[in-house]
Amino acid sequence: MRVEYRRFVPVETDLLAEFLMGEDWPYFSGEGVADAGRIREQVAAGYYDSDRTRTFWIVAETEVGLIRLFDLGDDTPLFELRIRAAYRGAGLGTQVLRWLTRYLFTEFPHIRRVEGTTRQDNLAMRRTFTKGGYVKEAHWRQAWPGRDGTVYDAVGYGILRSDWEAGTVTPPDWDDEPS
Ligand SMILES: CC(C)(COP(=O)(O)OP(=O)(O)OC[C@H]1O[C@@H](n2cnc3c(N)ncnc32)[C@H](O)[C@@H]1OP(=O)(O)O)[C@@H](O)C(=O)NCCC(=O)NCCS
Q1: How far apart are alpha carbons 6 and 109 in whole angstroms?
Q2: Inter-CA distances, 162 with 111, 140, 168, Å
């Protein structure tokens, strides 16, 4: 799918509210109860755009998804990625993850690695991480309270600049327990 990326500007707050409130996002805590007022407050506070945060629309025939990049002043930024349900499962998530990884490493020379976390049962995002060259680096047990009262495990993935530049995938050394 041919997509473009357009940086979010605060004047698009109504569009953002429509996007976030128009669908359920079960793997995000909180947004299920997001309301337009709270989203406006977050925009005003720089949650979507500031010197440490950038947000992009994923645009195909319409705004089909949203990327929020944050902690951009650190050497390890994080991101959130959302694609409308009607556009999932067609390779877009993988394409977008590769784009945002390249964007971060080229736009911010100080960045050494990029990280992302998700719920253990978010199989689509986990597969997307792997396809994008990210490797699992962390597993937090009972760390992600879901809206249904269940406490899920959380998992963390990362990609190193050195791997991204070389086109390699280096797994962590898990077998490092002192004997
Ligand atoms: C997670 C998300 C970004 C992935 O985007 P996508 O466009 O659906 O992903 P792709 O089509 O590129 O698929 C990537 C891989 O995941 C697999 N996949 C997709 N949906 C899946 C599902 N429901 N269960 C298991 N695997 C799935 C695909 O088969 C593909 O793997 P393959 O090539 O080996 O077959 C998208 O589903 C989404 O926005 N979900 C809701 C928001 C969310 O959970 N964001 C992440 C929160 S941290």
Answers
A1: 21
A2: 11, 26, 8
Taking CA atoms, 123 is separated from 26, 56, 105, 128, 130, in Å, by: 13, 24, 26, 8, 11
Nearest CA to ligand 1 atom 29: 89
Q: Mapping DSSP to helix (H, G, I), strand (E, B) and coil, where does residue 156 land?
A: strand
98 CB less than 6 Å from ligand 1?
no
**Atom from ligand 1 closest to the CA of residue 80:** 48
**Token pair for residue 82?**
């959302």
CB of 85 closer than 6 angstroms to any ligand 1 atom: no
Tokens 């991204």 label which residue?
Answer: 164
What global pTM score does this model have? 0.96
C-alpha distances in Å from residue 118, one per residue of 56, 122, 136, 144:
20, 7, 11, 9
pLDDT by 10-residue block (mean), the chain, 179 residues: 95 96 85 78 96 98 97 97 97 98 98 98 98 98 92 97 98 94
Ligand 1 in contact with 70 (CB < 6 A)?
A: no
| Residue 58 CB less than 6 A away from ligand 1 | no
